[in-house]
Amino acid sequence: MLRIHFTAEDIARTSLSRVADPLWEVLLSHFRLSDRDRPVCFQPWLVRLRSRPDLLTMMRPAGTLLSDLAPLGPYFPDFLTPPESAAGLDAGLDAVSATGRRRLRDELNLLHQTNRRRGRATPDWLAGLTDSQSGALTSLTTSLRKYHQAAVGSYDDLIRASVEADVTQRVSALLAGGVEALFRSFTPLMRWHRPVLEVRYDVEQDLYLQGRGLRLVPSFFCHGSAVSFADQDLPPVLIYPIMSEHRWETITSVDRRPLAELMGATRATVLVALRHSASTTELAATLHTSLASMSRHTKTLRQAGLITSERRGPAILHALTPLGWTLLDGAKVRV
């Protein structure tokens, strides 16, 4: 959990970005490609990428670099997501390429220490980033630009609409009840206990804003928990995952491909089967699969906000949410 400590001055200086940050989206989309159990709401993005070998080719160099620079774990270097990126991709990449050698050495050393604790080797090529003559940093920024164009830019229609829907909901809360109401709109991701905002986070940490305020930034590719800078001396920012319902609402209004293509045949079939509420055992029997497998699928659908699960005696009864019904009707399901 991340505990963010506010003063009255911090409340006054807290802001909400209306758009996603391009370099955070690059990094977080790379994490989604590395997920062992990819959230179902990202399946349409993956389907589109897989249908375009040219996009995958553009992404590959940066993907290889990011696998070494930002492995899944508790730490990745902050220079990959500079505050300047709030002004757009060009400004962000300019800041990456202008990163000072001392900062690069410090952050790469911290990455090395983190890797060592986790029994992971740090690739030798990373040392070249601190050599102004090697061209490694320039190569990195070029690769990041191409990755953004392929993985984020090619999906901009759905990303932008989904983020705008989430921000509209947050702004409504802000206008109705101020910053504290804005914080409450993020429950259960965040909980406001004045003067501390408790945020679902991958590590235990305290952040004291000390009058600097907090910038909240929506993210299409962030999932599960929020993310921020490791260096607390940087301008405080919190990247938060937009609500899954906003991703699905945009998909159903824009993408009319069969649902099985969007989220996988088995999960689509489970969703269709739940036009009539059923228990895990009943679903497993109907679809001729194991209880363990069905439990995994229903968990994923529940996390995506498409079904509810309620204990009824010894059984767990599953049912479609309004969003689940909307997705079925909007996608013109054929499975």
TrEMBL record:
SUPFAM superfamilies: Winged helix' DNA-binding domain
The protein, known as: ArsR/SmtB family transcription factor
Entry-linked InterPro entries: ArsR-like_HTH, Metal_resp_trans_reg, WH-like_DNA-bd_sf, WH_DNA-bd_sf
Phylogenetic lineage: Bacteria, Bacillati, Actinomycetota, Actinomycetes, Streptosporangiales
Top-level taxon: Bacteria
